[in-house]
Amino acid sequence: MQTIDIIVPVYNEEACLNQTIERLLNLKEKFKGKLSVSYIFVNDGSKDNSAQILEEFAKKDKSIKVINFSRNFGHQMAITAGLDYSKADYSAIIDADLQDPPELIYDMYEKSLEGFDIVYGKRLKRESETAFKKLSAWGFYRVLKSLCNIEIPTDTGDFRLITKNVREAFNKMREKHRFIRAMVPWTGFKSAPVYFNRSERFAGETKYPLSKMLKLAFDGIFSFSFKPVDLIFVLSAVLFLTSLVILGFGIFDGFEEEFLICFTVFLVGAINLLALGILGQYIGRIYDETRNRPLYIVKNSINL
Ligand code: UDP
Ligand code: MG
Question: Is the domain of 245 the same as that of 213?
Fold first, then answer.
């Protein structure tokens, strides 16, 4: 029988885990006679009881596999590890907080049978998320789409099912700054959405504070687009033209000198720093690649 691994990144999810695992285990019944189901929980350095809960379940059920990281390496690295260890015909990725309905993985599988190697969950509604999160996510996906040359579906997270072919191609991509929801479409395999309403987190708080959201957004933009560098050229052209205008005014008409100097110093300073910052983003990424550190470190594993 063909197989599926369901990969679940876990960071401080003790409030959700029992319920999540129960819901995920129900999938075995749904896939009966079609796919044999295993689970790869990647504990991303949780400081709460997540590791103990996972261990208890893994002891009782060999299809539950656990990877414990040595520390918190981040959501994208946890998914990467799950995909590295997955050996099944299909791999699915789902969050641990039940915001993504586990049952949809079955629909993704059915959709894949129509000839798709990637089936991703596209969010229609986001219940009970803050207005800021909804607005920033809405804006971010659209900015990203306009900046990048590959087709990145909007309103789509990492909740998806991929075939072994896609996984093997993806696993060859070892870059350090990972934006998985764009790396998967980069592989070029045929993809299709299934739609769902994103519900509330089952319990606990988001593990994505603003700092992690920004890091992910920066990785999305700077790892997939050189357009920010083009922006530097545009800004320099704008500055040059502005300086000509100022020169013209200066010649024909006496400006308030102090105001002009002050304004120009600040504007030029800000644009210079922006340009440096943009270049720094790329240079920092080159530095990270050359150091060639591992993407994550596994402390131990269970049933693997
Ligand atoms: N997560 C993780 N490492 C982190 C942060 C989050 O493995 O450093 C996991 C988390 O346990 C959850 C998923 O990534 O399974 C998505 O996180 P969360 O639900 O907090 O993000 P949100 O849905 O609020 O964007
Ligand atoms: Mg969530």
Answer: no
Give the domain range for residue 274. 227-291
Mean pLDDT by 10 residues, the chain (304 residues): 98 97 98 98 98 98 98 98 98 96 98 98 83 87 85 92 98 97 96 94 90 91 92 89 81 71 84 93 95 97 97
pLDDT for residue 281:
94
Residue 168 in tokens: 């093997």
| SS3 at position 129 | coil
pTM of the model: 0.91
Residues 155 and 264 in one domain: no
Please tell me whether residues 100 and 214 are part of one structural domain: yes
| Residue 151, C-beta contacts closer than 8 angstroms, at least 6 positions apart | 185
Which of 54, 133, 160, 208 best tests ligand 1's pocket when mutated (most atoms within 8 Å of CB)?
208
Residues framing ligand 1 (Cβ under 6 A):
9-11, 13, 44, 72, 74-75, 78, 95-97, 99, 206-208
CB 295 within 8 A of CB 84: no
- The CA 76 to ligand 1 mean position distance, Å, reads 9
- Among protein residues, the one whose CA lies closest to atom 8 of ligand 1: 74
Q: In what order do the strands lie in the sheet with 118-126?
A: 191-198, 118-126, 156-163, 90-93, 2-10, 35-43, 64-69, 298-302
